[in-house]
Amino acid sequence: MFVHAVYFWLKPGLTADQLKTFDAGVRSLLTIPGVRLAHVGKPAPTNRPVIERSYTTSLVVSFDDEAAQEVYQVHPIHDRFRDACAGFWSRVTIYDSLG
């Protein structure tokens, strides 16, 4: 299994339409062939010193293997998401893992 975890820090002051575009865009990634499990979320209200809660939105998707993840990275839906939404975030951090 290959897990791709993405954390977005959205820019302050985005309009409601921009937020709607981002949400629709990130959720469109879940439709890319090869995605096995997927989750889009917000920081949980947990309060422990080791928990990072400063991000705005998380995306976690899993694939059968690294090859499926590579297909995802160059899929037209992924390209459209980046083109339409990259201007909405100030930071993005990605953690990829194999298991």
Q: What does the model show?
A:
With 99 residues, the protein is α+β, with helices and mostly antiparallel strands. The chain has one domain: Alpha-Beta Plaits, CATH 3.30.70.100. The chain contains 3 helices and 4 strands; from the N terminus they run βαββααβ. It has a 4-stranded antiparallel sheet with strand order 2-3-1-4.
Strand pairing plus helix content: what structural class? alpha+beta
Straight-line distance between termini: 5 Å
Radius of gyration: 14 Å
**Main beta-sheet strand count, sense and barrel state:** 4 strands, antiparallel
Estimate the global geometry from the Cα principal axes. Answer: globular
Strand order of the largest sheet: 2-3-1-4
> What is the beta-strand fraction?
25-35%
Assign a percent range to the helix content: 25-40%
CATH class: Alpha Beta
CATH architecture: 2-Layer Sandwich
**Element-by-element helix/strand order:** EHEEHHE
Poorly predicted tracts of residues: none
Our count of domains comes out at 1
Mean pLDDT: 98
CATH topology: Alpha-Beta Plaits
